Amino acid sequence: xxxxxxxxxxxxxxxxxxxxxxxxxxxxxxxxxxxxxxxxxxxxxxxxxxxxxxxxxxxxxxxxxxxxxxxxxxxxxxxxxxxxxxxxxxxxxxxxxxxxxxxxxxxxxxxxxxxxxxxxxxxxxxxxxx
Length: 130
Fold this sequence. Notes:
Blueprint: H1 6-17, E1 23-24, H2 25-35, H3 40-44, H4 54-68, E2 72-76, E3 79-82, H5 84-91, H6 99-102, H7 106-115
Antiparallel strand pairs: 1-3, 2-3
Helix pairs in contact: 1-2, 1-4, 2-4
């Protein structure tokens, strides 16, 4: 099986957090890798940079997007919990949570628009010519 994309991890991650307990991101990576029945080789497959695993990176992006949508919260560095909004979403029994689903939340739209707005590039990032 190929490693799922980050959007495929969103709903399963939220389901794992539904007990309301604070969970460490590393534990979520392992639990999600197990849920998707990833092999040891797939779990250890590194990013091209060699600075982390592909599955860890994709779970990290799923966490970021769920957080920006207000479905989870970072209780402290490296830990997450489900939010009240996340519990409400799960109560509706969604078939999938992805970027399109998250667009119903204004905070997520603001985040997405900020990422795509070239005027948000800091002046420090612009190199001036002599």
